[in-house]
């Protein structure tokens, strides 16, 4: 699809020259031109734009106010401001107001084309991320798993088929693949959806308490039982109960659970009689129950009672196509939880996420995205934030507050010149990474804020790999 750039300037000759410069680097873009802020807003409202390049000082509606109104009209619009009266203060104000970049007149062709190229890429990413968020939101609205890969679609079909019955379901799969979410989805799609959904984390409850938690107890049944207690099977009446990680429950409880599955009744601890229950039983496990049966750790008859219907969750490696959608979903979810403005994933970060093996599956991806959100102060998550989220830079030993001495505490002290060079290198690297994080990876703005020439800053960044060595 052809991208569209809106140029806004009250000087027609300058605007025409600017259009020629842009077209020289981007011959396939569509150029629209406006002579003032009001006309620009009309064009945005009727035709839209992927990027707006506007003068800062114009009669009537100036660039700063145009920026504000344009972002209200088209949230997420990429805006680059131009001015002949550039200053760090104006740049910071513009960026805080939502501008993507800030260039000073006379505009250098290379700098203009670089900023426009990055701006168009940023706009494209915003659009893709919005589409991914919309897909994720629709998935949430449908109360189903996030993902649209063929294997995930097949899993969803299996869940829907299983939910239509009232039989016991065993959900199997690796750790971090969403077994509890699958169980919850089965409940929500079943005819028991209006009833309670009770989850029991079996390994988290001590053996001497698990029986009482599940089946209840009568007053005086054991020391501390000062009053009768209703068990979770009874509490889940009319709904579903999830026995999470059932492979870890002790043999003594397995025997009593078998009776519950066979007779559909429970005997509270210390009681003489039984209580009928009306509950659907769902169970999850990440263990190989067949191996545990062979090892004498799990009852074979209980396994067959549980394994009436089986749903197997997918490791992330089997639906890697869903990683961009999942990452966008978790990013939006985390921003909402932290009450932050929406963020987007940069192309380098997205590429890294898609290439990783993810042994911890979807849960590992979710935690990684949470860390990225914490370390990203701007709108776009960049590779530097991924580096910081994974532990940051290796740090030398610290002997005094704020003073790092390479080699301190070792048998051989590093020579003065070498130690000084290492400290300066570490400082430069940390400073540059910090300022880039502050500007969301925008090198032009990082150069302005730091007072370092753009070319020098780029050289420092290029030396980054050697500096880490």
Got a strand count?
18
Biggest sheet descriptor: 5 strands, parallel
Structural class: alpha/beta
What kind of oligomer do you see? single chain
The number of helical runs is 20
Question: What sort of overall outline do the alpha carbons produce when their principal axes are compared?
Answer: elongated
Helix proportion range: 40-55%
Spatial order of the strands in the main sheet? 2-1-3-4-5
CATH homologous superfamily grouping of the largest domain:
P-loop containing nucleotide triphosphate hydrolases
How far from one another are the termini?
43 Å
Q: In total, how many domains does the architecture comprise?
A: 4
Quick description:
This protein is 49% helix and 14% strand. With 469 residues, it is of the alpha/beta class. A 5-stranded parallel sheet has the order 2-1-3-4-5, sandwiched between helices.
Question: Your description of this structure?
Answer:
The strands form 6 sheets. This protein has a 5-stranded parallel β-sheet with strand order 2-1-3-4-5, sandwiched between helices. A 5-stranded parallel β-sheet has the order 7-10-13-6-14. A two-stranded antiparallel ribbon has the order 8-9. It has 4 domains: 4-138, Rossmann fold (3-Layer(aba) Sandwich), CATH 3.40.50; 165-314, 3-Layer(aba) Sandwich (Rossmann fold), CATH 3.40.50; 317-392, Helicase, Ruva Protein, domain 3; 398-469, Orthogonal Bundle (Arc Repressor Mutant, subunit A), CATH 1.10.10. The chain starts with a strand and ends with a helix. It contains 20 helices and 18 strands. With 469 residues, the protein is an alpha/beta fold. Mean pLDDT is 82; it is low at 138-143, 393-412 and 465-469. Helix content is 49%, strand content 14%.
């Amino acid at each position: 699809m052809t991208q569209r750039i809106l140029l806004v300037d009250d000087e027609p000759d300058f605007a025409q020259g600017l259009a020629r410069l842009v077209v020289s680097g981007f011959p396939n873009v569509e150029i629209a031109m406006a002579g003032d802020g009001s006309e620009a807003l009309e064009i945005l409202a009727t035709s839209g734009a992927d990027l707006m390049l506007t003068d800062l000082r114009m009669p009537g509606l100036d660039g700063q106010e145009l920026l504000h109104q344009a972002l209200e009209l088209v949230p997420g619009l990429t805006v680059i401001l131009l001015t002949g009266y550039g200053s760090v203060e104006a740049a910071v104000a513009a960026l805080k107001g939502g501008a993507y970049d800030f260039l000073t007149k006379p505009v250098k062709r290379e700098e203009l084309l670089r900023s426009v190229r990055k701006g168009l890429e940023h706009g494209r990413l915003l659009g893709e991320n919005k589409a991914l968020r919309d897909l994720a939101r629709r998935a949430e609205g449908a109360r189903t798993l996030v993902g649209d890969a063929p294997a995930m679609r097949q899993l969803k079909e299996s869940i829907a088929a299983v939910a239509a019955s009232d039989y016991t379901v065993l959900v199997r799969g690796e750790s971090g693949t969403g077994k509890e979410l699958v169980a919850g989805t089965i409940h929500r799609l079943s005819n028991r959806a209006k009833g309670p959904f009770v989850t029991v984390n079996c390994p988290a409850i001590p053996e001497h308490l698990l029986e009482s938690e599940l089946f209840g107890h009568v007053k005086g049944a054991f020391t501390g039982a000062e009053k009768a207690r209703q068990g979770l099977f009874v509490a889940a009446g009319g709904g579903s109960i999830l026995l999470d990680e059932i492979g870890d429950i002790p043999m003594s409880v397995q025997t009593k659970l078998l009776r519950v599955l066979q007779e559909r009744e429970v005997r509270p601890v210390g009681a003489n009689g039984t209580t009928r229950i009306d509950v659907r039983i769902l169970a999850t496990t990440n263990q190989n129950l067949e191996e545990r049966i062979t090892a004498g750790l799990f009852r074979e008859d209980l396994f067959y009672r549980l394994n009436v219907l089986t749903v197997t969750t997918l490791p992330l490696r089997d639906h890697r196509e869903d990683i961009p959608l999942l990452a966008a979903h978790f990013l939006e979810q985390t921003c909402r939880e932290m009450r932050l403005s929406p963020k987007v994933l940069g192309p380098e970060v997205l590429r890294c996420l898609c290439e990783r093996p993810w042994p911890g599956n979807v849960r590992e991806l979710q935690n990684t995205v949470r860390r990225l959100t914490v370390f990203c102060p701007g709108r776009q998550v960049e590779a530097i934030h991924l580096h910081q989220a994974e532990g940051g830079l290796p740090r030398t030993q610290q002997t005094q507050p704020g003073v790092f001495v390479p080699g301190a505490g070792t048998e051989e002290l590093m020579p003065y010149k070498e130690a000084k060079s290492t400290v300066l290198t570490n400082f430069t690297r940390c400073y540059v990474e910090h300022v880039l994080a502050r500007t969301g990876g925008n090198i032009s703005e990082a150069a302005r804020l730091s007072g370092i020439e753009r070319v020098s800053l780029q050289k420092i960044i290029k030396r980054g790999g050697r500096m880490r060595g």
